[in-house]
Amino acid sequence: MQNIIWSTGHHLKFGNITGSDNCFLYDEYGNRLVDLESGVWCTNVGHNNRRINQVITNQIGRITHTGFCYGHPAIDETALKVLEICGLKGGKCEFLCSGSEAVEFGMRIARTMSERPLALTFADSYFGAYGDAATKSKEGWFIYDRLNCGCASSPEGCTGECEEFQKIPFSETGIFLFEPGSSMGLVRFPSGKLIRNISERIKRYGGMILANEVTTGMGRTGKWFGYQHYPIQPDIVAMGKGIGNGYPVSVTAISENVSQKLALKRFIYAQSHQNDPLGAVVAREVIRIIEDENLLEACLQKGNYLKEKLEGLKNQYPVIKEIRGRGLMLAIEFHKDANLVYEMLLDEGYIVCKRPNAEVLRLDPALTIEMETLEWFADTLKEIFTKNDCYS
Ligand SMILES: Cc1ncc(COP(=O)(O)O)c(C=O)c1O
Question: 355 alpha carbon to ligand 1 midpoint, in Å?
């Protein structure tokens, strides 16, 4: 990897990875690694999924890419299914290439429609590598810090009843960009009351809710989408990561109402890979696999199992401060030394995600992970704590 541009903070964890199977990666020497990070939280139905491989193989023998002004039956069919699972029947979809792009595309639509100058979001939300939401310019955004307001320390977290909440300029706000709990990688879920309070006010002023489901979508939290844990229905949903299971396809879905109003506006967006048939075929198969294999239910069961195991460790080892999670999106917060645990897990062949500048390890295994693999992980973690006196 000497001919590659490395971003600051990125570095090689292992030698070359040359093979994979579900939650296992194999390096060039045949070593097996357990991937509890799902390749930056993407491979929700497992690495090297045979069904995904098959549809890709079938499709590349026919047509992979066309351009803006072409159709393919799989594009419309997948769009219909996507709209059904996100509660936006009658709406429309666009197939794009990354999570960042799906959010940016959603924001461009929302800005085109909005009659008010501001978009609201939380200080602990991430939206992508570029674009309006990544930049969050002072002129266009109101950023609410729900983790440092008057009611942040209550058991539920901010409920929208504090002084700081009253300062949100709802009358100037036309968009709420909601990221339901990935929280800069730290897995912190906003309270139901807060989200209800915000969405009621946004709707009162005729605004829109855009849900960023890039990480929380495609079954990751035990429901199709993270916003489905809240009493709201977004107008726009941005999906990425899991919808391509590692293939770079993403989707933005909009409601029927938004789509009808958008049709009356001048809306321009063009890049080379909008609505490619290959991406649509992959997304369609991911959805079918999640349905056929009951992976939403499996995700909840496996997530609860892992959470229970981790809670057990927390009761035994005071170095663990908190376990957070919904479905198979979990975080272990330590009082100290998360990095040491991360390194020791790597030595044992377990890949988890270490968040920079936080004592947090994050776990997002594939929904198809075997219970046995979760058990091995919990046992390995316990062994690490037992062998190292500093953790007892
Ligand atoms: C919550 C969230 N939104 C958006 C993105 C951007 O997605 P991508 O990296 O595919 O562009 C990420 C990526 O980590 C994310 O975690």
Answer: 14
